[in-house]
Amino acid sequence: MRAALVTVIAALVTVIALGAFSPASAAAQQDDDLIPPSRNWISPERFILEVRVGPYRPDRAEVPAFNTFFSDDVGPLLALELDVIAYRLDEILYVTGAGGIGTVTFDGNTLDQLGEETSEETKFSMIPLNLLATVRIDALARRLSVPFIVTGKLGYQWARWSTESGDVNDESGWSVGLLWAVQLGLDLDTFEPAAARNMDEEWGINHSFLFFELMSFMPSDDSLPVGDDLTWTAGLGFMF
Fold first, then answer.
1. Distance set, CA 129 to CA 132, 155, 169, 176, 213 (Å)
2. Could you check whether the bond before residue 23 is cis, i.e. omega within 30 degrees of 0?
3. In the chain, N or C terminus with fewer CB closer than 10 Å?
4. Is the bond into 37 cis (omega within 30 degrees of 0)?
5. Which one, of 96, 72, 207, lies nearest residue 155 by Cα?
6. What's the pLDDT at 71?
7. pLDDT reading at 128 higher than 50
8. Domains along the chain?
9. What whole-number distance in Å separates Cα of residue 70 and Cα of residue 104?
10. If you average pLDDT over each of 7-16, 34-43, 92-101, 195-204, which comes out highest?
11. What is the structure's pLDDT at 36?
12. Rounded distance, CA 240 to CA 49, Å?
């Protein structure tokens, strides 16, 4: 799963780079610099895709075994999120429904009866799946050319976890609970409107942004407590 997500992220970055820096794009950008700014060229906005990476570590107080086996491991968490735009208040905000998937793996060594590390590896893996409702406020970027987009997210997460020692799958299960996040996005269109126009015309990408997001996963009492009370991710987003 981690390899697949890395491949998808690399492919997206490659496509964007080819579109932005090809000779045809460079020539088009020079021509577009002579055109007065206008947003009439923007194609329909239907989806938002985010690719992200960040540290992840279950709460140490709730899962003391992590201090024993994975004391220095923080993932990382790799994830994708796809938002479907349900409502658009033009140049003010978006309301979306979103789904996400990720992967995070922790590696360590087993202990013998004396508490000493052995050469046998142990792993804890988690695949979080989530459904979210989000509100994205882009009025600053669209109306005032202040390049920030603020997003709030609230939803539910299902985290499939499994443990493995050597070649043996020890345990597995699901942890389910609430997920919330707050995101600050840096709107790239504000800095390069001509390049943004080229992206839209050639690839159908309306907007692109960098983001930093704070998030918290709070599993229910009857789930394995693999939530992180507060962590962060950062990444790249595309609207198309």
1. 10, 11, 21, 10, 17
2. no
3. N
4. no
5. 96
6. 72
7. yes
8. 2-239 (2.40.160.20)
9. 13
10. 92-101
11. 38
12. 8
